Amino acid sequence: MADTITLIDDRTGKTVTVAINDGVFNSSALRELDPDLRMYDPAFLSTAACSSSITYLDGEAGILRYRGYPIEQLAEKSTFLEVAYLLLNGELPTADELDEWAFDVTHHTFIHENMRKRFVDGFHYDAHPMGMFVSSVAALGTFYPDAKDIFNKQSLDRQTLRLIAKVPTLAAMAYRFSMGLPFVYPDNSLSYSENFLNMMFKVGDDYKVDPVLARAMDLLFILHADHEQNCGTTAMRVVASSQSDPYSAAAGAASALYGPLHGGANEAVLHMLREIGTLENVPAFVQSVKDGNGKLMGFGHRVYKNYDPRATIIKKAAYEVFEVTGKNPLLDIALKLEQTAVEDEYFISRKLYPNVDFYSGLIYEALGFPAEMFTVLFAIPRTVGWLTHYAELLSDKEQKISRPRQRYTGASERNYTKIEAR
Ligand code: ACO
Question: What dotted CATH number matches 52-398?
Fold first, then answer.
């Protein structure tokens, strides 16, 4: 027999019994009790707003899977473009399918010259790269009138390909502009991650992308490709629900990611490590966090109540990067901080463990990225997740335009008073 839940309206004595499937019951049953009854759930703490077959996350157990495949296996054996194919199509590609997909992405990396010469050149000299990225993604859609043909699968696939291929170009362009460096065009002979690093850092003809660093970049892209219904992805779905084109929706999602509570925590980790400064200062810093003076950045997660599996993978990758770049001096402080915290009752009892951001900033910095680029680095791979959710939402017959209700707490009806009488 299926699990059920029975809701009783104590005002009327009416009851309704609903099935529980996968830990979720359909809240529309409430309207059977009373059509005007609403659930109050700020920040959606108890709401499942959609069904999704993309990413599985068990925060208690520290499990993350894309389309059923454990993140640890994908991180070790796959590439970012293969993972992108998996997320978008639901299955791993055959060798031919992967070749065709990689070829197509590689051959859509260029952007219209007007984007660079007229649009990007219009930004103020010190514009934040993430602000430039958000606006460029929205502006890109205006170059493709077919972007609005969202229920035509061929057209939607074309926009998906364009966005995934072009976001590294937009990101690198924002960085080069902010540094006053000449723009580097995409190089079709390079892989996705190599091409991105080349567009970012090439100065002169001698620059060659180090394969270990390109692999680390690819790994970081894999780990950030999707994370089910987080703030940015929810923004993507809400905008998409009005049948807005994928560029506009992705710009909305990127705007949500821009905030420091979402995509900006790794930057805060670096500031924190610098502030701590020396190993000797770690115990005092941990004590001050316990005393309520700020948070241990890169620790804790709304869903993970265990090690974030991505943090474990990133920590290992950090050592491989440091073999090439030399050790980031902040690593020792991070290690001591982690060790001190995970053995401390305050953090154990609250189930606070390192999250994805605890070590990623250290790698980004070692790769040569300034802190302002960290959120942009998150947005590049997450574009794949956003677009996968966009397509899933459009094909979901149970979805409609997102339109939550509210609990009104304002004034009751009152009469307008003339300005002289106020
Ligand atoms: N350092 C110290 N104490 C913490 C931390 C932390 N990083 N995180 C939570 N706590 C404490 C809270 O003070 C609270 O203690 P209390 O019960 O004594 O009041 C308890 O742990 C529960 O914390 P909540 O705030 O209820 O947890 P919530 O799920 O709302 O917050 C969040 C999750 C925002 C990630 C939080 O842990 C945090 O701010 N961490 C630091 C910022 C960070 O690393 N963000 C990146 C998240 S990953 C990502 O977005 C990609």
Answer: 1.10.580.10
